[in-house]
């Protein structure tokens, strides 16, 4: 196309150019064609620029009129280009799904899977719930003196209640103690390691977490709100008993503490841990270190504590309730052992086995699965 | 102690009881004792009735069978006429007029007592219609009826092909069998808590149920029925040598008893209670134990050694019972068939020494019973016994319990004695024994001895209260209410207490509450009284209230949050947490190359696998790796748990340790090591440890890890000067000892050192105000120059050098043998101004020169 054809003096109507340009723009199928057209018409050496250059040939009114017409032409072409460009973009977006398709069903870039032991998770959850009520978690020895495990808990020497805990005792040693590097310890440090204290009695593996009770009372004055979650040991091993297990123990001592406060605390736990519809029930029981003592039941999650579903006995609980653990008001003798005046203060203690609680929640049948380091078991959590 | 309780028996003491067994069970659980389960005793006896044999005829087609017409009462569906049904039967002991158990269609039976249960149907046997079955005992689960011979006429038919003869029941034909045998009952299994030996018998339990349900409770009258005309002999003498350990000893001598099987009603109750019937005399002692909770024992008087003295020409035969401590060397053959060695810790009942004179009787004779635990076989009651001595005594609970432990022997009796029984009980039990014996076995009471050497002088045992303390408690109803947390009217409280046998006296605010004798062992203070009131009110009826008052004013114990953080970081890094037993075996300790005597040993191990507390957490980790080795996976575990180290004169140290492990087949050498080194760096970074560094361990160093770790693949981990522990591969010889074939690496840190350092390196630095100038540098250096040495030298070059980051490490083609190519990203920055390219270039040139001069590096482009 030669510019001569568009000699402005030939009285050529810019209209024709406009139509020609619009048609070309309309038919453009790609961004590059569109760009070519833009250069052709609106470029520095384009047709419109050429016309503007020729304006100098005209005079007076004619020049002004043609000038206006040219501006209008430039504007129209610009608009046409923009419109076409927008239209093409819309079209492209419509086809985006096909044009840039990924097989999104391929697996994600996998991060390594790690697993926290289910006991850790339960301990964390219980701690968090009791922390809301101001209970502080503490840690006390797993190997402790008889005094803390039994004597101070109102179980004097020779008491038959001690038989209920299948207790492991620590043996004394006659051998020479050596340092880890194999060198014997100096003579003055003695050669006989006794597993007995003149006042505190024998060393035992704590069969429960209640050894923390008097230790906590010795550590601080009331108010006391303490939880102790720790490993416990008993000489038994079967489907429901492992020689090592974890127990939870809660202790609260303050002025005017009554049974209703124990109940309130347990109900709070039941709602937080098991669900808002769950509640607890206390039944009479006997422990030496609490008086009165209770067994704690938790309402069945299936039948809601009624023991019945559509008129038939609930198959899960059979009675509406599951046994959770034990509790009671701290025995005055235990308070006294902790140096606390039972006339001024009272308190409650409660506790249960973590594994038992989890077995109930997860419907596990063998407690020993927890501690045999079986990868298939551990990878579920 | 779990007690099996017959509902019908219980009701004997509660004539007004209307509540169903289920209701009783529920109320007991809520107010007193947990009822763990209950079951009907007539289960499986449905559609079995008493039938009367009307006519016996020969079977036309079989020699050994009979066609029996049996009257089964009003069973309209099956009766041919007037309640008579024809039954084909092979029993050999049938006679007309005999009462038998008839299984009607629908009943469940076990043919000849074998195989699965089958449902009865009307059938034809060899062409003759049979509408039921005349049962043998083992076909309907009633072996108990024939296991031990019953008195004549009762339950005959234990022989082969013999049917169960129930003529003795005198039941009307058509009576359900269960009803005729008194098996229309419910048995509850109840857990009686150790503080309530008073409820370890039907009477105590009935008293409790009566108080809970408000039903009047009746004890059968118990008075001695001695025949005044019969000559009362004084031939038995009881000596108690250790009064403190035997506060009361009653002996009842009965003559003319006839030993034999017990009647069905007695057997039935024993069976329901889980006690095996033996003979009438032994059964009676068990019955009284079950009823009163007072253990009793029967001696054959003739078998007790006696002394013969001649006084004034008359020969006197005297039997002696001596309560004394055992002696070293003494033995006894107990009723369980085992022989037990006795010594001075065991309380025994001994008889007289026949050769000794009256003056020498103390300490003589032989043990005839282990006091409170078990009687001796030689002096027990046998079929030919005619004269018996009943022992109804009270023994010291601690002594009994110690005896049980020492001998490894316990019984229903010792289980009650070791809880502490009231000294008042024997007189009731003695009267009941005499009464039942007369009724069941005949005979007369000829002597009653009652020794109360220390009654009212309770030993200061842990079960009771201190000497001299009474059984009265001063309390106020207000205190009781405060302890329970609800207002309960004083009159209501009083009602609860008196219902249980407590006596309440005093003014409105000052009560004096007296414990009944059967609850004396519990007598304490306010808490005991509040407990009684609260449980009768019902714990389940108490409101739920959150504790008021301020929580303890104390900052939280952060170690738990820190432990949790460590665990979360490791979980996020793809590791699996383990929990393993804290104990291991001596063998495992030796295999780890450690000394057994340096580990905390258990005195009473559970098994040969559980003998010591682990002295090194790594042992548990190695065992876990070995266990999972076959899975063929990469094993990435961690455990944060204790090790146990003995200390002189104090409790062992429970040292918390973190062990992270990598095991399984490596894809390239050093993979586990560098994986864990990366974990160490990651932990140090996320936990914010200050001045974290690794340090090589000199070969000469004698650290605990020297022998456990691979000498060329281990690093000390430090934060500042604190040694956290090590990261390294385990020594091949240690792995070999554990049978692990692949390489294993551990990160082993002390929690005690680690926890206080968490967050120590988190120092706030203002963001960089001026842009850094970035440069890369790549050079070839000899491999003998360690990476750490290079980095240290580069970092020291100039304060403007801000960051050094390794991005490539290469050796092989294009790089001379013995050298490697190393490339770093470097960034230069000034805290005061924007660096010019020239300034950065100057430092860079200095660096290049240093690398060339110091390490002979060749810079690559």
TrEMBL record, chain A:
GO molecular function, one term: magnesium ion binding
HAMAP family, A to Z: Phe_tRNA_synth_alpha1
Binding site for Mg(2+): 291
Subcellular location: Cytoplasm
Similarity-based family: Belongs to the class-II aminoacyl-tRNA synthetase family. Phe-tRNA synthetase alpha subunit type 1 subfamily.
Cellular component per GO, a single term: cytoplasm
Organism of derivation: Candidatus Uhrbacteria bacterium RIFCSPLOWO2_01_FULL_47_24
Reaction catalysis annotation: tRNA(Phe) + L-phenylalanine + ATP = L-phenylalanyl-tRNA(Phe) + AMP + diphosphate + H(+)
UniProt cross-references to Pfam families, sorted A to Z: Phe_tRNA-synt_N (PF02912), tRNA-synt_2d (PF01409)
Keywords for this protein: Aminoacyl-tRNA synthetase, ATP-binding, Coiled coil, Cytoplasm, Ligase, Magnesium, Metal-binding, Nucleotide-binding, Protein biosynthesis
Chain ranges of the Aminoacyl-transfer RNA synthetases class-II family profile domain: 126-372
Coiled coil segments of this chain: 11-38, 63-90
EC assignment: 6.1.1.20
Cofactor(s) required, per the database record: Mg(2+)
Subunit and partners: Tetramer of two alpha and two beta subunits.
Free-text comment on the cofactor: Binds 2 magnesium ions per tetramer.
Gene Ontology biological process terms from the UniProt entry: phenylalanyl-tRNA aminoacylation
Gene this protein is translated from: pheS
Stored SUPFAM superfamilies: Class II aaRS and biotin synthetases, tRNA-binding arm
Protein name per its UniProtKB record: Phenylalanine--tRNA ligase alpha subunit
Automatic annotation (TrEMBL), chain B:
Major location category of this protein: cytoplasm
GO BP term, example: phenylalanyl-tRNA aminoacylation
A Pfam family: tRNA_synthFbeta
A single MF term (Gene Ontology): tRNA binding
Highest taxon of source: Bacteria
Catalytic function, reaction form: tRNA(Phe) + L-phenylalanine + ATP = L-phenylalanyl-tRNA(Phe) + AMP + diphosphate + H(+)
Co-factor note (free text): Binds 2 magnesium ions per tetramer.
Subcellular location: Cytoplasm
Domain FDX-ACB span(s) in chain numbering: 768-860
One GO cellular component term noted in the UniProt record for this chain: phenylalanine-tRNA ligase complex
Cofactor: Mg(2+)
SMART domains: B3_4 (SM00873), B5 (SM00874), FDX-ACB (SM00896)
Signal peptide: none
Binding residues annotated for Mg(2+), in chain numbering: 528, 531-532
Limits of the B5 domain: 468-544
PANTHER family: PHENYLALANINE--TRNA LIGASE BETA SUBUNIT, PHENYLALANYL-TRNA SYNTHETASE BETA CHAIN AND LEUCINE-RICH REPEAT-CONTAINING PROTEIN 47
HAMAP family to which the protein is assigned, alphabetical: Phe_tRNA_synth_beta1
Family membership noted in the UniProt record: Belongs to the phenylalanyl-tRNA synthetase beta subunit family. Type 1 subfamily.
Subunit structure as annotated in this protein's UniProt entry: Tetramer of two alpha and two beta subunits.
NCBIfam families for this protein: pheT_bact (TIGR00472)
Name this polypeptide is given: Phenylalanine--tRNA ligase beta subunit
Species annotation: Candidatus Uhrbacteria bacterium RIFCSPLOWO2_01_FULL_47_24
The encoding gene: pheT
């Amino acid at each position: 196309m030669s510019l001569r054809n568009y000699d402005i003096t030939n009285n050529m109507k810019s209209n024709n150019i406009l139509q020609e340009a619009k048609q070309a723009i309309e038919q453009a199928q790609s961004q590059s064609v569109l760009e070519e057209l833009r250069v052709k018409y609106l470029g520095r050496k384009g047709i419109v620029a050429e016309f503007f250059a020729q304006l100098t040939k005209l005079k007076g009114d004619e020049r002004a009129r043609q000038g206006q017409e040219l501006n209008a032409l430039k504007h129209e072409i610009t608009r046409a280009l923009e419109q076409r460009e927008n239209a093409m973009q819309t079209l492209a977006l419509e086809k985006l799904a096909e044009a840039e398709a990924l097989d999104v069903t391929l697996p994600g870039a996998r991060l390594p899977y790690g697993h926290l032991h289910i006991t850790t998770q339960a301990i964390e959850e219980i701690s968090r719930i009791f922390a809301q009520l101001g209970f502080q978690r503490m840690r006390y020895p797993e190997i402790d003196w008889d005094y803390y495990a039994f004597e101070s808990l109102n179980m004097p020497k020779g008491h038959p209640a001690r038989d209920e805990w299948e207790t492991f005792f620590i043996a004394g040693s006659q051998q020479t103690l050596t340092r880890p590097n194999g060198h014997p310890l100096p003579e003055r440090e003695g050669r006989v390691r006794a597993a007995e204290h003149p006042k505190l009695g024998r060393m035992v593996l704590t069969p429960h977490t209640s050894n923390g009770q008097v230790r906590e009372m010795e550590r601080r004055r009331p108010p006391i709100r303490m939880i102790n979650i720790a490993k416990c040991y008993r000489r038994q091993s079967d489907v429901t008993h492992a020689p090592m297990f974890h127990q939870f123990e809660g202790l609260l001592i303050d002025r005017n503490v009554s049974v209703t406060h124990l109940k309130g605390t347990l109900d709070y736990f039941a709602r937080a841990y098991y669900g808002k519809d769950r509640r607890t029930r206390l039944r009479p029981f006997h422990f030496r270190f609490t008086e009165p003592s209770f067994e704690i039941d938790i309402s069945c999650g299936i039948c809601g504590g009624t023991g019945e579903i559509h008129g038939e006995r609930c198959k899960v609980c059979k009675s509406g309730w599951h046994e959770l653990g034990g509790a009671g008001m701290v025995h005055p003798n235990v308070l006294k052992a902790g140096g606390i005046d039972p006339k001024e203060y009272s308190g409650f203690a409660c506790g249960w086995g973590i594994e038992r609680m989890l077995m109930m929640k997860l419907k596990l049948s063998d407690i020993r699965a927890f501690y045999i380091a079986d990868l298939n078991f551990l990878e579920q959590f | 102690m779990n007690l099996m309780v017959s509902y019908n028996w219980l009701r004997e003491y509660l004539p007004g009881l209307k509540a169903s067994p289920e209701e009783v069970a529920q109320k007991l659980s809520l107010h007193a004792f947990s009822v763990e389960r209950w079951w009907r005793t007539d289960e499986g006896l449905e559609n079995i009735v008493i039938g009367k044999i009307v006519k016996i005829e020969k079977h036309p087609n079989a020699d050994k069978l009979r066609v029996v017409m049996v009257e089964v009462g009003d069973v309209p569906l099956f009766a041919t006429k007037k309640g008579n049904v024809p039954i084909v039967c092979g029993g050999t002991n049938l006679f007309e007029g005999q009462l038998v158990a008839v299984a009607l269609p629908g009943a469940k039976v076990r043919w000849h007592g074998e195989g699965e249960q089958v449902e009865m149907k009307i059938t034809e046997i060899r062409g003759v219609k049979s509408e039921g079955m005349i049962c043998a005992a083992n076909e309907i689960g009633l072996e108990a009826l024939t296991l031990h011979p019953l008195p004549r006429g009762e339950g005959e038919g234990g022989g082969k092909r013999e049917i169960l003869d129930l003529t003795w029941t005198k039941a009307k034909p058509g009576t359900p069998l269960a009803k005729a045998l008194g098996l229309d009952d419910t048995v509850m299994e109840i857990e009686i808590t150790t503080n309530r030996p008073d409820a370890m018998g039907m009477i105590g339990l009935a008293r409790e149920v009566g108080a809970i349900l408000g039903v009047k409770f009746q004890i059968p009258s118990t008075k001695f029925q001695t025949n005044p005309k019969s000559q009362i002999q004084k031939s038995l003498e009881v000596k108690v040598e250790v009064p403190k350990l035997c506060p009361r000893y009653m002996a009842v001598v009965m003559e003319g008893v006839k030993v034999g099987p017990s009647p069905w009603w007695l057997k039935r109750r024993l069976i329901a209670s889980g006690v095996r019937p033996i003979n009438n005399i032994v059964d009676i002692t068990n019955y009284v134990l079950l009823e009163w909770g007072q253990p009793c024992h029967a001696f054959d008087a003739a078998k007790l050694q006696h002394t013969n003295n001649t006084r004034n020409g008359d020969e006197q035969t005297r039997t002696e019972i001596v309560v004394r401590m055992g002696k070293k060397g003494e033995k006894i053959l107990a009723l369980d068939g085992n022989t037990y060695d006795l010594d001075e810790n065991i309380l025994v009942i001994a008889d007289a020494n026949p050769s000794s004179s009256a003056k020498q009787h103390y300490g003589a004779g032989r043990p005839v019973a282990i006091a409170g635990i078990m009687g001796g076989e030689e002096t027990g009651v046998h079929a030919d016994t005619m004269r018996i001595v009943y022992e109804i005594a009270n023994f010291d609970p601690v002594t009994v319990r110690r005896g049980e432990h020492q001998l490894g022997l316990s019984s229903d009796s010792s289980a009650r004695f070791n809880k502490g029984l009231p000294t008042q009980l024997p007189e009731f039990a003695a009267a009941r024994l005499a009464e039942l014996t007369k009724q069941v076995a005949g005979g007369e009471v000829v002597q009653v001895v009652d020794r109360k050497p220390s009654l009212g002088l309770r030993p200061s045992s842990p079960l009771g209260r201190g000497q001299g303390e009474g059984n009265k408690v001063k309390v106020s109803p207000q205190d009781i209410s405060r302890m329970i947390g609800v207002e309960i009217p004083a009159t209501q409280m009083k009602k609860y207490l008196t219902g249980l046998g407590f006596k309440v006296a005093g003014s409105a605010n000052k009560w004096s509450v007296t414990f009944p004798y059967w609850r004396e062992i519990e007598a304490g203070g306010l808490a005991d009284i509040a407990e009684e009131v609260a449980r009768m009110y019902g714990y389940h009826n108490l409101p739920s209230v959150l504790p008021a008052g301020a929580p303890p004013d104390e900052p939280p114990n952060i170690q738990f949050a820190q432990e949790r953080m460590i665990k979360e970081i490791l979980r996020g890094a793809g590791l699996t947490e383990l929990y393993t037993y804290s104990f291991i075996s001596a063998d495992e300790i030796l295999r780890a190359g450690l000394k057994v005597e340096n580990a905390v040993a258990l005195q009473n191990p559970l098994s040969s696998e559980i003998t010591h507390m682990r002295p090194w957490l790594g042992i548990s980790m190695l065992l876990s790796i070995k266990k999972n080795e076959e899975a063929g996976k990469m094993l990435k575990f961690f455990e944060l748990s204790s090790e146990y180290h003995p200390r002189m004169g104090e409790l062992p140290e429970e040292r918390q340790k973190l062990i992270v492990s990598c095991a399984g087949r490596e894809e390239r050498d050093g993979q586990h090591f560098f994986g864990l080194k990366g974990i160490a760096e990651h932990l140090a970074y996320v936990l914010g440890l200050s001045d974290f560094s690794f340090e090589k361990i000199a070969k000469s160093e004698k650290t605990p890890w020297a022998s456990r770790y691979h000498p060329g693949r281990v690093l000390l981990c430090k934060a500042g000067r604190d040694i956290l522990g090590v990261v390294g591969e385990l020594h091949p010889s240690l792995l070999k000892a554990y049978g692990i074939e692949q390489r294993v690496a551990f990160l082993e840190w002390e929690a005690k050192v680690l926890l206080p350092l968490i967050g120590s390196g988190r120092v706030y630095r203002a963001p960089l105000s001026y842009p850094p100038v970035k440069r890369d540098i790549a050079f070839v250096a000899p491999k003998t120059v360690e990476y750490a040495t290079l980095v240290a030298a580069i970092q020291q070059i100039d304060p403007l050098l801000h960051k050094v980051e390794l991005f490539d490490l290469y050796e092989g083609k294009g790089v001379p043998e013995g050298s490697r190519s190393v490339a770093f990203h470097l960034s230069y920055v000034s805290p005061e101004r924007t660096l010019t390219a020239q300034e950065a270039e100057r430092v860079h040139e200095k660096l290049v020169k240093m690398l060339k001069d110091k390490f002979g590096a060749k810079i690559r482009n």
